[in-house]
Amino acid sequence: MADPKGFLKNTREVAGRRPVEERVNDWDEVYPGGIGRALLPIINVQASRCMDCGIPFCHSGCPLGNIIPEWNDLVWRDDWEGAIERLHATNNFPEFTGRLCPAPCETACVLGINQPAVTIKNIEVSIIDKAFESGFVRPQPPEWLSGKTVAVIGSGPAGLAAAQQLTRAGHTVAVYERADKPGGLLRYGIPEFKMEKKHLDKRLEQMKREGTVFRSGVEVGQGDLTGDRLRDRYDAVVIATGSTVARDLPVPGRELKGIHQAMEFLPQANRVAVGEEVEGQIRADGKHVVIIGGGDTGADCLGTSIRQGAASITQLEIMPQPTEERPTGQPWPTYPMTYRVSSAHEEGGDRVYAVSTKEFVGDDDGNVRALRLVEVAFEGGKLVEHEGTEREIPADLVLFAMGFVGPEQPGLIEQLGVDLDERGNVKRANDYATNVDGVFVAGDAGRGQSLIVWAIAEGRSAAAAVDTFLSGSTQLPAPIPPT
Ligand code: FAD
What we know:
Elements lengths: L5 H4 L10 H4 L11 H13 L9 H5 L6 H9 L3 H9 L5 H7 L3 H5 L11 H15 L14 E5 L3 H12 L3 E6 L7 H4 L8 H14 L2 E4 L10 H7 L2 E4 L5 E2 L12 E3 H12 L14 E5 L3 H13 L3 E5 L33 E3 L2 E8 L5 E12 L2 E4 L5 E4 L2 E4 L3 E3 L5 H5 L22 E3 L2 H4 L4 H20 L12
Parallel strand pairs: 1-2, 1-4, 2-3, 4-16, 6-14, 7-8, 7-14, 8-9
Antiparallel strand pairs: 5-15, 10-11, 11-12, 11-13
The protein binds flavin-adenine dinucleotide.
């Protein structure tokens, strides 16, 4: 620890975002010149605030088990190559988590007990951006090949992490992706203003050079490549197909035109943002947009609708407005806020809490024109509507962002014959194995909708299990057991 008094001398400072009026006119990341570069003038001092605690709770706060005090110290000493080596030892893709993670490590930071936590997420993204710029991120192809083959189905963060680990361990890995390009939600869910796709593409380039093969535009389980064929052709299979069945809202008027799932709207917007053309694109321009749901997906719909020029945007949430106030007599830090507050919430839109949608109201042409809502509260564990509070709000584009209920079952999952758990996710044992010999699962397909950091951690853990299955033992780390 280079500066034992760093946390006494220095206060927390984070990267400043671009002014709202500037950034809503483009799709670039909300930080000037990329967050990593924006942070460089302050980052050594910020890293010096790490106390290098005897028991660093940040390690266990992070699902990846990132060894945070070590790379904080290396950044403080200006040893960026050493820092990326320590960071990559536990995290394949810090450029994703450094931009997109809600940072449970910061919630766990001991400094947070009586002053603001170390800016761990900012330090992480500075390390990886500087590493890419300085040429420290090099392909790490295996020294020998095992002769074993693995199919990874799905190219989101879980599939990519599993594939990178298994390729480096010497197995021959093919990643199948039904979309035209790999990346999963990192490419077609998450907008450019949160993470520009060039960061994903740079990492995919490294993976290709290491020997991972990508087969995009192939939906496994449809057409020739059935579950049986897959098992015949490969020694092991990793299901990393995500949680893609979106929760619906079957209230009167659901059939009206202008009501869409977020994942119908966002992928189209993301394609257009990088210069593609989408015929019949669902757009928010000039419309009264209502977003139902208050998480990351809702925030991404909000930022996208703002950039497309919506006339008004209202984001509805069934839960009450959270409070960050500490209850009297409770000295310890409060539980983190229930809802994500994203950069998009600085940019516009109204948030309405504790309401439920009763009905969508249409015009004579079958288009939605309004949404009828009612105020609600949770009483005795039950959702209760407040009589006399029903009202209509204008809505000519409604976007559902109410979460995902599990992986799609027809096709691959049915063909493989894997068991599902009581929530409809792929059931796995402690080693990420399913009930079908040689078939493993990682990420949202098994965990249920979650976070990028969990997907990467599960991908790494599943890779260790596959390596043991194929080779009898493994040197690969397994950061987390499944829950
Ligand atoms: P996914 O990323 O969903 O990837 C699964 C892939 O499998 C997809 O590309 C799909 O096309 C492919 N696939 C499915 N079936 C087949 C098949 N049969 N054959 C071939 N390919 C198939 N988390 C955060 O931590 N921070 C955020 O800011 C954040 N923002 C989000 C924003 C949105 C809009 C959404 C929807 C989620 C967000 N999340 C965020 C959650 C996070 O993106 C997911 O938890 C994570 O991507 C899950 O990774 P995964 O690899 O399991 O699945």
